[in-house]
Amino acid sequence: MKAYLAGPDVFLPNATEHARRKVEICARLGFTGRPPLNEDVAALAAMPEEQAWETIFRKDLAMMEECDVIIANLTPFRGVSADSGTLIEVGWFLGRGKPVFGYSNSAQSFAARCASHARLQPDALAGTSVEGFGLADNLMIAGAVARTGGHPIVLPPDGQDRAFDSLEVFELCARLAAEAR
Amino acid sequence: MKAYLAGPDVFLPNATEHARRKVEICARLGFTGRPPLNEDVAALAAMPEEQAWETIFRKDLAMMEECDVIIANLTPFRGVSADSGTLIEVGWFLGRGKPVFGYSNSAQSFAARCASHARLQPDALAGTSVEGFGLADNLMIAGAVARTGGHPIVLPPDGQDRAFDSLEVFELCARLAAEAR
Hints:
Two copies of one chain form a homodimer. In chain A, strands 2-1-3-4 form a four-stranded parallel sheet, sandwiched between helices. Chain A is of the alpha/beta class. Helices cover 44% and strands 9% of the residues of chain A. In chain A, helix 3 (84-96) links the parallel strand 3 and strand 4. In chain A, helix 3 crosses helix 5 (139-149). Chain A contains six helices and four strands, in the order βαβαβαβααα. The first copy, chain A, has helices spanning 15-28, 49-66, 84-96, 110-120, 139-149, 168-179; strands at residues 2-6, 32-34, 69-73, 100-103. At the A-B interface, helix 2, helix 3, helix 4 and helix 5 of A face helix 2, helix 3, helix 4 and helix 5 of B.
């Protein structure tokens, strides 16, 4: 089994080392983790911007094609929800009928994060409703994960947030993916 | 042609009236717009939360199956990027190989919004990098739209933000979808 290791982890300062740790955890659980790092595109920095991002887009899509499942880091990133690029990838796996596994290092509910956001930016989007449903994120994300992977989004088991780069909840999620083979 | 009218428009206080205006614009351009409103699920409010969100999830997926293209409102919503549920849907269309059209009422670049977010929440995710590439949002979104719909994300033509519920840029985008048939 090959698992696409989606997430904003690629934006960490130590993304390469962090990806190596994720790949090791997958190997220990008996499957191959594929992190969508950009280090393998050596010429990226020298390219014009449009060519650079299109190269990353094509590379990531090709890696997704090769993988059997996605394990998505759905920890909130720069807003109330998961990283936007990761969500495109989760949707792609849903569209392809491939299993989606997802986890978050945040123990807060989606509704609680939306309420915090509204307090922080009171003028923004006033009057819009929140469909919380007690879920960890937007219902389309929760549905993609629960319906295809067979488990809800994996959260910190003790209800306490983990550090953004903690891999404890990732490992719980990776174990579910390994067991589902 | 049937177009799935994705977007956080469903969270507007006047979502039903707003959807009606979008559907009218599509009809004028010669195609059918399908808004994923929840008003048709009359029993929703009486259901347990889990049953309610799963009903919406299944209903939206079924509507997506019926549609030929997606026209996605990618205006930033509760964070630096587009609405998270909308992104799942955009990824689904990408995975299915159906054309993705997208627009945003924000004229700001993704990088500029990330910088604003970092100023607003300086402790959050310090040190993470931004892959801006001069794009309107994360490159996976830009790629999904440009690669399948054949046009970049449609933005306000004069470089000025529009109100969140303005339909001017939607109409420009819907026109591109109509012409691409």
